[in-house]
Design brief:
Blueprint (H helix, E strand, L loop, with lengths): L5 E3 L1 H18 L6 E7 L3 H10 L4 E9 L12 E4 L9 E9 L3 H11 L5 E9 L12 E5 L4 E3 L15 E4 L1 H6 L1
Parallel strand pairs: 2-3, 2-5, 5-6, 6-7
Antiparallel strand pairs: 1-9, 3-4, 8-9
The protein binds 1-O-pyrophosphono-5-O-phosphono-alpha-D-ribofuranose (PRP).
Length: about 180
């Protein structure tokens, strides 16, 4: 099977991740440990690269939700699979997502994390499908805006395939039907 066509190449991703890390480091300078909450599974590569480029003290946490199951259409129903493990009360929290599509997942996550009474919550997503938004949720740091295509690679999957591609690629609609 051939590799998916490139939408955003590796160099462009790493350049943008560096820019986001610089901006976040500036914004959180002298505010103590920043708690990065990676949303499993899709954010794991973005989180790894982003966190290592920050120049501020940071703590890594993970949270897991389930929304899409194995299909490619959002059900809008989000379920908490695993909450953060550490105590985030009175700490500054940055949610790190690979992609925001309808926005349901991010909105749900903000609610869950607010219940832990952090000092603040901001959001960061490598990709944003702005045209697909169904709920109003603010993304403070966005890597790239993308269209309605299904994207894979750099953590994102299609049917659990292609997460480890070093670039963001697209899956053709024909392949989606067979996926
Ligand atoms: C993806 C992505 C976000 C969510 C965004 O996760 O990582 O968490 O969908 O969609 P929304 O804005 O429409 O809610 P997915 O359910 O594919 O799980 P995964 O990260 O484990 O692949």
């Amino acid at each position: 099977m051939s590799n998916p066509p490139v939408l955003i190449d590796e160099a462009a991703i790493l350049k943008r991740v560096g820019e986001l890390a610089d901006q976040i480091s500036d914004d959180y300078a002298d505010k103590g440990d920043l708690v990065l909450v990676g949303v499993l599974k899709g954010s794991f590569i973005f989180l790894a690269d982003l966190s290592r480029r920050l120049s501020i003290p940071r703590i890594i946490e993970f949270i897991a939700v389930s929304s899409y199951g194995t299909g490619s259409v959002s059900s809008g129903a989000v379920r908490l699979v695993m909450d953060v493990r550490g105590n985030i009360e009175n700490r500054h929290v940055l949610i790190v997502e690979d992609i925001v599509d309808t926005g349901h997942t991010l909105k749900y996550l903000i609610g869950i994390l607010e219940s832990h009474r952090p000092a603040s919550i901001r959001t960061c997503s490598l990709l944003h499908k702005a045209e697909s938004a169904e709920v109003d949720v603010k993304i403070d740091y966005v890597g790239f805006s993308v269209g309605d295509e299904w994207v894979v690679g750099y953590g994102l999957d299609f049917g659990e395939q292609d997460r480890t591609l070093p670039y963001i690629g697209t899956v053709a609609p024909d392949d989606r039907n067979g996926g």
